[in-house]
Structure formats: C-alpha cells, structure tokens
Amino acid sequence: MSTYTVQDPRKVTTRRLAEMKSKGEKIAMLTAYDYSMAKLIDEAGMDAILIGDSAANVMAGYPTTLPITLDQMIYHAQCVARGVKRALVVCDLPFGTYQGNSKQALASAIRIMKESGAEAVKMEGGEEIIESVERILSAGIPVMGHLGLTPQSINKFGTYNVRAREAAEAEKLLADAKLLEKAGCFAIVLEKIPAELATKVSESLSIPTIGIGAGNGCDGQVLVMQDMLGINMGFSPRFLRRYADLGNVIEDAVGNYIKDVKSSDFPNASEQY
Ligand code: KIV
C-alpha cells in the first residue's frame, strides 16, 4: 500500500506534465525495466516511468549504457508498458540509434512507439541532435530532452563528474535547453549539474525540467529504481537518497530460504499436496 495518495487519478500525459509545472506541482519520475516493478511503481502513484538505458547497467551489468540495443530497449519497454495504467511511459533511445542522422533517429523512435507501448522517447544532447529531435517530433512522437551529464557520451567526458561548472558549458546548456523547448520537447532531464544552473534553466523554460543530481529547483525529480531501493548497494553518490534497503532484505530472505531447504524445514506439511 503506497504512503502517497494520488490527487488526480487520470492517465498522465505530456500535457498534464505541463499543467503540473504551471501549477507548481512537482513531477515524480522513476526508472523501471520490467512488468512487476513497473506495476508496483505505477500503483504507488508515480507520474512518469522511464525505461532508461541504465538498463544496460542495472539489468545487464555493463559498466556503461553504450552496449544496450534498440531490440533490448523495446523488450524492456514492452514489459513496463504492460504493467502501467496511469503513469506516462517514456523510453530512452539507446546509443547509436539516433546519432547517425535524422532518418535513422526517426526510424528508431517509430520502432519504439510501434512495438513497445511507450508514449514518448528520451534523447541525450542539444544542438548536435536538434535535426533528429525535430524530425521525430514532426512525426507526432513526444520527445524528452536530456542535458548535463549524458552517459552515452562517457567516452568523450572521461568521468561521471558534475557537468557545466564552467561558464561556457553552462551557457551552452542553457542555450541547448531553449533550443529543445523551441523544437517542441515536452520536458528535459537535467543530470548532475550545479543546482543554481538547474534552477536558472527551469525558470527560463515553460516546459518542465526533471532533475537527477541537479538540486531542488527543477520541476521534478528522477532516480534509478535500483539505486533508490538499495538494490544497487555499491552505488552511493551524494545526490542519491535511499528509500529502502532491499539489497539486504533480499540477501536475508534468500539466505533463510537456502537454510530452510538445506535443513529440510521447507516445504512443511501445509506447503505440499
Ligand atoms: O537511463 C537512465 O536511467 C536515465 C536517467 C538517469 C535519467 O537516463
């Protein structure tokens, strides 16, 4: 049973997110990659669920998000979409499926929309991908932008440190955010940038910003589900608040199951036919 009571039970749409920003109502977003977790997260009252390419890390165990394929993202998005009734479902376009050219980008976005049940796509980058963003938008596919730390460019940055601390990068980020808004994006994720800059960007835009490691001035927040539930136990950046310790809960439960099997305690007479 969720500790949060949903105020508006209607299906969340991109338009609803815009309304939330204009009313000053914060937007809650979390990642999910499978049916069971997506159903729980949706029933708890989440506004938006992201099938992040962080699936490459937390589901597949890769050190970066680069290896995940479009087919794999579509599979995760199909699983999530089947579990969700109310939240807006957004799916990442994975690395290599939109950077080539706008025709490739549109074809990738169309596959996600046709095959997965997701209602929008997310793409990393600003000016350098704007033609692709515009082409996808012109096909009627909602696009969420993603600026700041963009993990698909990890090999260019070399680290996962905070981005846009320097004035030139901060100015480019603000200009990119305005460009994405002008193109028609319905929201922008701001990842790991100074809180002051994220507040400035949020106040400069009419579309919502969704922060991760970007402070409280954003219009909403997103976290990776495994991180905030304490399943990804080794990962504890400063921006992360842990809401559960499921890693230890799962290890305890599994240890007890093993003990019960080994001692012949499980199954007992009432657990058999
Ligand atoms: O892939 C992902 O999970 C993301 C979020 C961290 C925003 O892009």
How are the secondary structure elements laid out?
Layout: H1 14-23, E1 27-31, H2 35-43, E2 48-51, H3 55-58, H4 70-83, E3 88-92, H5 102-116, E4 120-124, H6 130-138, E5 143-148, H7 154-157, H8 167-183, E6 187-191, H9 195-204, E7 209-212, E8 220-223, H10 225-228, H11 246-262
Helix pairs in contact: 2-4, 4-5, 5-6, 8-9
Residues 31, 50, 52-54, 92, 189, 191, 212, 222, 224 line the site of 3-methyl-2-oxobutanoic acid.
Describe the structure.
The chain is α/β, with parallel strands linked by helices and 273 residues long. The protein has eleven helices and eight strands. It has helices at 14-23, 35-43, 55-58, 70-83, 102-116, 130-138, 154-157, 167-183, 195-204, 225-228, 246-262; strands spanning 27-31, 48-51, 88-92, 120-124, 143-148, 187-191, 209-212, 220-223. An eight-stranded parallel beta barrel has the order 1-2-3-4-5-6-7-8, surrounded by seven helices. Strand 6 (187-191), helix 9 (195-204) and strand 7 form a beta-alpha-beta unit. Helix 2 (35-43) crosses helix 4, helix 5 (102-116) packs across helix 6 (130-138) and helix 8 (167-183) runs parallel beside helix 9. It is globular, with a radius of gyration of 20 Å. The two termini are 32 Å apart. Bound molecules: 3-methyl-2-oxobutanoic acid (KIV). 3-methyl-2-oxobutanoic acid binds at residues 31, 50, 52-54, 92, 189, 191, 212, 222, 224.
